[in-house]
Amino acid sequence: MEFLASLEPWHWLSLGMLILILEILGAGGFLLGIGVSALIIAVVLAIFPGLAWFWQFILFATLSIVITLVYWKKFRKFNNKTDQPLLNSRAARLVGRSVSLLTPIQNGTGKVQIEDALWTVACTDDLPQGTIVDIVGADGMTLLVKLHDKSLVVKPE
User: Fold this and answer.
1) Structural domains in the chain plus CATH codes
2) What backbone torsions phi and psi does residue 151 show, to the nearest 5 degrees?
3) pTM score
4) Residues 6+ apart with CB under 8 A from 60
């Protein structure tokens, strides 16, 4: 308890800097409120040097919770905005394209080749090989397709 009674601003400053360094290394915002709170307590303790350790910890805990909640509520969405929302979703990027069936769709599934990749497709209708289909969605790595145009159905021989 003696150590707690002798806390000085530099203790809080050191703690705050250490936690913020850990945050920079990749905590994803979890340590941000704690680190900033420790820095604020360092300033408060420099202004009010006689502040009891009990009140320092209560203020630290309260500030940590408030700052963390404000960060997660206000700024977390800001950091996730991107001009390429489908960048890491290859299947979703293919929606809207028309392709020819590489294998017939039987029992609801078939295959198409797009560039250098072979994709599994799902459709409610059975369609013959070579039929043109539109990609209308994706379910995981399976492309959801529908018939492009009734006149483009390849007649089985």
Assistant:
1) 1-80 (no CATH), 85-147 (2.40.50.140)
2) -75, -10
3) 0.52
4) 12, 37, 38, 41
